[in-house]
């Protein structure tokens, strides 16, 4: 028998510096009974998208992007050492869109009730997954507030297309899962929403900050103000990060790209500031299409959002 020299298993023949650990190496499949600081779950759903989207491929792309970063934070002066429990991805049927949304809710409900982690990161998928995730989160954690980083209100009616990626927050409000004054939208962009939905947000008591507000008042002022306000009236806070809040220059792999959005540093500052509050216990990241991304730029932003969230909780 010929002995093969220099071969390693497929995907394992990569350079390894003995002093460097990559964040992806911390991912560990969750097993019943195990607990830890952080957990992730993927919801690879994009068929409810109004426009063409390959966001169903994003959970794996974001996990892969964690290989781009080390576990050491020079700014904070510590190193991540705990495993990140990975619950895997919820099964999505090829054709059953409504059933997939129900499975997303049931699967995340099952994950949250394990109480396996203190802090949760949900990887979409398009923004329709936030309805399932926030509903399941609310049932486990009580009265919640939501900070939504987004170019769009996502308050569309369901009569003109059903439960799409443009309807999650309207559905949550109409179902009483969240109250209007417990929803904060940051980064709403000009010429991107209908007047009807802007009026609906204001009539429901939703707090809306446009991109002009972000530049005028700063992300620091807005997030600190709203975290304090929400924290006084809710049991937990959930961050929903739609990557289309970013300017197209920073998120080429987003289906709804456009000019006039945030730069990545502003979004990261917002996540950092919010995550410092102990009531912020979960974050989802949605609307990344790896099939149209450039050099994985957008997935890398998502992975970096995860690291900044974790850095404030460690």
Describe this structure as you would to a colleague.
- The chain is α/β, with parallel strands linked by helices and 314 residues long.
- The chain has one domain (23-313): Ureohydrolase domain (Arginase, Chain A, 3-Layer(aba) Sandwich).
- 33% of the residues lie in helices and 19% in strands.
- It contains 9 helices and 11 strands.
- The strands form 2 sheets. It has a 9-stranded parallel sheet, with helices on both faces. The protein has a two-stranded antiparallel sheet with strand order 3-4.
- Helix 3 (129-141) runs parallel beside helix 4 and helix 7 (219-231) runs parallel beside helix 8.
- It starts with 26 loop residues before the first strand and ends with a helix.
- The relative contact order is 0.16.
In terms of quaternary structure, the protein is single chain
CATH topology: Arginase, Chain A
The CATH class name reads Alpha Beta
Average pLDDT value?
96
The SSE order reads EEHEEEHEHEHEHEHHEHEH
